[in-house]
User: Fold glucose-6-phosphate isomerase from Actinomadura keratinilytica.
Amino acid sequence: MPPFATPPVPPMRITFDARMEPSGPVLTRRMSDLRGLFADTAAWEAALAEDPVVYEVASSPVPEAEGELPQSITTIHPGRVGGEFHMTKGHIHPRPRGEIYLGLSGVGGLLLFDGDKPQWIPMEPGTIGYIPPGWAHRSVNTGDEPYRFLAVYPGDAGHDYDWVLRNGMGYRVLSGADGPLLRPF
Ligand SMILES: O=P(O)(O)OC[C@H]1O[C@](O)(CO)[C@@H](O)[C@@H]1O
Ligand SMILES: [Fe+2]
Assistant:
């Protein structure tokens, strides 16, 4: 017997479709799901009229359970809200667990925050961004095309989104004349 109770998952070959996304469920996050995250509240409210899809997360069939290593591919569509680039909600793992991101297409960045100092890792196809345990993380599309990355994380990590609403992420990532501009919160 395994030392913990999880639904059994067989070894599996996970295939990618033409968009390089795993074939599992897709979670769609629209502008209205990102309440309280962009600095320019008026610009965010104006964007609600169309309520565009900001990002999609396609998951593999591996469950989020202790001992498993689920994966997902996130696509952040290009765009800005009051000069701030489209981004994920961001979260911290309630159980301190590391995570790996691999850039697949487009350009973006991985913003990390430990509650004290923020870190920024530019991401492009082939870049691995390592998220150590205890660091909140958010991904940002800093380009004009969809930014897509693979995430692999321990299945018991969990997602705490309120931590980011309470503490912020240390930086806001804005569009600047010479590329992304990191403005302290
Ligand atoms: O969970 P968020 O902050 O919306 O960001 C989405 C991305 O982060 C993950 O939750 C993994 O950390 C994935 O599901 C996805 O890669
Ligand atoms: Fe995570």
Q: What stands out?
A: The chain is about 5% helix and 35% strand. Residues 7 and 52 are 36 Å apart (CA to CA). The two ends are 49 Å apart (CA to CA). The helical segments are 41-47, 162-167.
